[in-house]
Amino acid sequence: MEEEKKWYVVHTYSGHENKVKANLEKRIKATDMEDKIFRILVPTEEKIESKKGKQKKVEKRIFPGYVLVEMIMTDDSWYVVRNTPGVTGFVSSGTKPLPLQPEEAKHILRGMGIEDDKIELDFGVGDKVKIVDGPFEEFIGEIKEVHPQQSKVKVLVSMFGRETPLELEFSQIEKI
């Protein structure tokens, strides 16, 4: 059986998310589970609150009462997480913990400003590319900017005797 690390949602007492994270990190070290339990996140986002005319940045929990744990699910890793003080259980279908779908995990991590997967690009600024999809198909241009978070590039193409910048998806170009 292929062991794969996945994100799981752990239910905690509301307001105890950071305590659970700290307790779990200590338990992982104490039980030598670093090879099974990898990251623990309390999903938060920055909000700006206005009090008495003053604006202040504050961290707000996105999912109060929940912590995300990236782990390889085994009986031992399940036991360590389940028996951490403050944990009330895994989000599950009955008795078996359900992992987050990869798209859900990526969406949450991106919302927190954490990239889960680094995209490997085979092109960069200055490379010549051919547009393979869209209204400018078959045009040749040079990459001027790369924006991996949005999966977009800015390409300069020559149209009507002048350089014109186009914003394109990675899937619309091919390196030549």
From TrEMBL:
Q: What's this chain's function?
A: Participates in transcription elongation, termination and antitermination.
Q: Per UniProt, what is the name of the gene that codes for the protein in this document?
A: nusG
UniProt keyword annotations, A-Z: Transcription, Transcription antitermination, Transcription regulation, Transcription termination
Show where the KOW domain sits: 122-149
Q: Which GO terms describe its cellular component?
A: cytosol
> Which GO terms are recorded in the biological process aspect for this UniProt protein?
DNA-templated transcription elongation; DNA-templated transcription termination; regulation of DNA-templated transcription elongation; transcription antitermination
Q: Which InterPro entries match?
A: KOW (IPR005824), NGN (IPR047050), NGN-like_dom (IPR006645), NGN_dom_sf (IPR036735), NusG-like (IPR043425), Rib_uL2_dom2 (IPR014722), Transcrpt_antiterm_NusG (IPR001062), Translation_prot_SH3-like_sf (IPR008991)
Q: Which organism is it from?
A: Halothermothrix orenii (strain H 168 / OCM 544 / DSM 9562)
Name used for this protein in its record: Transcription termination/antitermination protein NusG
